[in-house]
From TrEMBL:
It comes from the Bacteria. It is an enzyme of class 2 (transferase). The keyword Glycosyltransferase applies. This is Glycosyltransferase.
C-alpha cells in the first residue's frame, strides 16, 4: 500500500475512484463476530455473496462466540467463507475479533456485525480507499430498519443486492439511526476538518475496515473490554497517525437496534470508567482529584544522561506538580549501567543516576527508559524538556490548550540560545509524529514534515512559564506539590466566588421576577380602574339623560295643565 501525504484528516487530497471504474488487487478478510442470530447471519452472508468486489480477493470469517446451538454455514454465502471459534473458550466481541483476525489472510481487515445487510458495492466502496493509502480507517454508513413484517429470505436478499436493489429490501426506522455521526461529519466538512481529539468518536465498529498491518501495529483489540472496544481501538488508531474516512457510498442495513440505542444510560454507566482510564481526550470523565490513569494525557521526557541530580529533579518535580492530574514522567538515561558492583558511595561516577533512581523508583508516575521512544503512544502528547528547565504549574495545561486550539502537531518553546543553536522544549502531538514518520522521505527533517502536515509554532519560555532551575527551584523543596496546592486553592477560591456570584444572580433574578409581577399587577389594576371609570362615565351619562327626560316630562305635563285648564 502507498503512503501519500495527507494533512490532518483531509482525505480529500486523495483521488478516489467511483465504484466499477478501477482494478482491485488487495485481498480483504471480512471478520464477523456472532453469538446466535442464525437468521440474521444468513441475510448478512447472502448480501456478501452478491458483492461487486472480486470473489477471489474476498474471504469471510465468522467467529462463533459461544452460540448454542453452534452457528452453521448457510447455503448462500461467499465462496471463501468459514466459521471458526475462539480456542481459548473465552467470550466477548473483542476476543472474537482477535480470534478472527489471527487466522485472516487478507491484507485488509473489514470488521462487520452479524446483523448487517450490505449494499452491492459496500465492500468495493471500502476497498477503493485502501488501494490509495496504507493508513486509512474507512467507516461505512448504516441505515437502520425495525424489520417490520416478514423478513426477506436469503435468496431474496442475494437477488436484490445483485440487482442493486438493496435499498428496497427494508423500510427505514425513523426512530433510530446514527444521526449524531452524520451531524459530526457534516460539521467538519465531511470529517476532513475534524480535530485529532474527535476522530475516534465515529469508530463505532458495525462496518469498519483498515489495513491488517495497521491493526497489528496498533496492538489489536483490547480483549479486557466487554463493551466500548471499538471506541478504544479508534483512539489508539488515532495515535498511530491513521486517517478516518466516513464513506457515504458504503451503505448497508442494520437489522434492528443496537444495545446502546435500547439502553443508552446503562451503556454509558458501564463504559465511562473504562473509557476514562484509556482515552485521555475524554476530559469530562477525568474530574476526580488525585487520580492516576492507565493512559496519561501527557508524557514529560527528561534526559538524565550527563545531567546533575539537582537539575533533573527540578524538571521532574515541576512536571509532577502540574495542575493536570494525568501526567507521566519518563526519565531517559543509561540505567543499565547501574547494574553490577557499586563503588564507594560518595565517589561513584554514576552517583547522579543512582540518586535519581533512588528518588523516583517508587513513584508510580515516573518510568525509566534507556532512550526516547519514537512516540509516546498511546499517550496523546509528549513534552521533551531539557534537564534543568522547570515547567510552571499550569505550563503543561496551557501548552496543550494552545496545541488543541488549532490542532497543531508541534510546539517549540525557545529556552536559551548559544553558538551551538537554540535550546528548546518540545510539545509533540503523538498522532502528528506518527503520521510524519510514516511519510517522511530520505533527507527530510521530521519537524519539517510535522509542520507541513499538522503545523508547528515557536513560543517563548517566559510567556509559558518554563524557567531555569536556578529561578524556579528549590522554592517548593519542602513540598513539591506546593505550587499545585496554591493553584488548587486559587481555583477553589474562584469557585467560591463564582458560587457567590451565582447566588447573587439568582437573588437578582428573583427580585426582577417579583418586580415584573408587581408591574404586571399594576398594569392589570390600571386596566381594571380604567374599565371602572368608563363604567361610571357611562352611568353618569345615562343618569343625565334620564334626568333630562324627567325634566322634559314635567314641563310637558305643566304645559298641558295650563292649556287644558280654561
Amino acid at each position: 500500500m502507498s503512503t501519500p501525504r495527507i494533512p490532518g484528516n483531509d482525505y480529500g487530497v486523495l483521488a478516489v475512484p467511483a465504484p466499477g471504474t478501477w482494478e482491485p488487487r488487495l485481498t480483504v478478510s471480512v471478520v464477523i463476530p456472532a453469538r446466535g442470530g442464525q437468521d440474521k447471519l444468513d441475510l448478512t452472508l447472502a448480501a456478501l455473496a452478491a458483492q461487486t468486489y472480486p470473489s477471489h480477493l474476498l474471504e469471510v470469517i465468522v467467529v462463533d462466540d459461544g452460540s448454542s446451538p453452534p452457528l452453521r454455514l448457510p447455503e448462500i454465502a461467499p465462496e471463501h467463507t468459514r466459521i471458526v471459534g475462539d480456542a481459548s473458550g473465552r467470550r466477548g466481541i473483542a476476543r472474537a475479533l482477535e480470534a478472527g483476525t489471527a487466522v485472516a489472510d487478507g491484507e485488509v481487515i473489514h470488521r462487520m456485525d452479524a446483523d448487517i445487510v450490505s449494499y452491492r458495492e459496500h465492500v468495493e466502496a471500502h476497498m477503493r480507499w485502501h488501494h490509495l493509502a496504507g493508513y486509512l480507517v474507512v467507516m461505512g454508513t448504516l441505515r437502520f430498519t425495525a424489520m417490520a413484517g416478514i423478513p426477506p429470505t436469503p435468496a431474496e436478499v442475494q437477488i436484490a443486492v445483485a440487482k442493486d436493489r438493496a435499498g428496497l429490501l427494508f423500510e427505514e426506522d425513523p426512530e433510530h439511526g446514527h444521526d449524531w455521526i452524520g451531524e459530526l461529519v457534516a460539521a467538519h466538512r465531511d470529517f476532513r476538518d475534524a480535530p485529532s481529539s474527535l476522530l475516534h468518536r465515529v469508530h463505532v465498529g458495525a462496518t469498519v475496515s483498515l489495513p491488517a498491518a495497521l491493526l497489528r501495529e496498533t496492538g489489536g483489540m483490547d480483549t479486557s473490554l466487554a463493551l466500548g472496544e471499538d471506541t478504544e481501538l479508534g483512539y489508539r488508531l488515532t495515535q498511530t497517525g491513521a486517517v478516518f474516512v466516513p464513506d457515504a457510498e458504503a451503505l448497508s442495513w442494520h437489522l434492528g437496534t443496537t444495545t446502546a440505542m435500547r439502553r443508552p444510560a446503562d451503556v454509558r454507566r458501564h463504559n465511562d470508567p473504562f473509557i476514562a482510564d484509556r482515552i485521555p481526550y475524554r476530559r469530562h470523565l477525568r474530574t476526580d482529584a488525585g487520580r492516576q490513569w492507565l493512559v496519561p494525557y501527557v508524557d514529560v521526557v527528561v534526559d538524565a544522561a550527563g545531567a546533575s541530580f539537582e537539575d533533573v529533579r527540578a524538571s521532574v518535580d515541576g512536571a509532577l506538580a502540574s495542575t493536570l492530574p494525568d501526567v507521566r514522567v519518563t526519565l531517559t538515561g543509561p540505567w543499565a549501567s547501574l547494574a553490577g558492583e557499586r563503588p564507594a558511595p560518595l565517589d561513584d561516577p554514576l552517583l547522579d543516576l543512582r540518586l535519581l533512581r533512588g528518588q523516583y523508583a517508587h513513584d508510580g508516575r515516573v518510568s525509566f527508559a534507556e532512550r526516547v521512544p519514537a512516540t509516546s503512544a498511546p499517550v496523546p502528547f509528549r513534552l521533551v524538556c531539557p534537564a534543568g528547565w522547570v515547567p510552571g504549574a499550569d505550563s503543561l495545561a496551557k501548552l496543550i490548550e494552545q496545541a488543541e486550539k488549532d490542532d497543531e502537531g508541534l510546539l517549540l518553546v525557545a529556552l536559551d540560545e548559544d553558538e551551538s543553536g537554540v535550546l528548546a522544549a518540545r510539545l509533540e502531538r503523538t498522532s502528528a509524529v506518527a503520521r510524519a514518520a510514516r511519510v517522511i522521505r530520505e533527507g527530510e527533517r521530521l519537524d519539517d514534515v510535522i509542520a507541513d502536515l499538522h503545523g508547528a509554532t515557536w513560543l517563548d519560555a517566559e510567556s509559558w512559564k518554563l524557567r531555569p532551575a536556578a529561578r524556579a527551584y528549590p522554592y517548593w523543596a519542602v513540598n513539591r506539590n506546593r505550587e499545585a496546592a496554591r493553584w488548587k486553592a486559587a481555583a477553589e477560591s474562584r469557585a467560591r466566588e463564582a458560587e457567590r456570584a451565582q447566588r447573587q444572580v439568582a437573588a437578582l433574578k428573583a427580585e426582577l421576577k417579583e418586580l415584573r409581577a408587581k408591574a404586571a399587577k399594576g398594569s392589570r389594576d390600571t386596566v381594571r380602574w380604567k374599565e371602572k371609570a368608563e363604567q361610571r362615565r357611562l352611568e353618569a351619562v345615562a343618569l343625565r339623560q334620564a334626568q333630562q327626560r324627567s325634566l322634559l316630562g314635567r314641563a310637558a305635563r305643566r304645559l298641558r295643565r295650563l292649556t287644558e285648564g280654561p
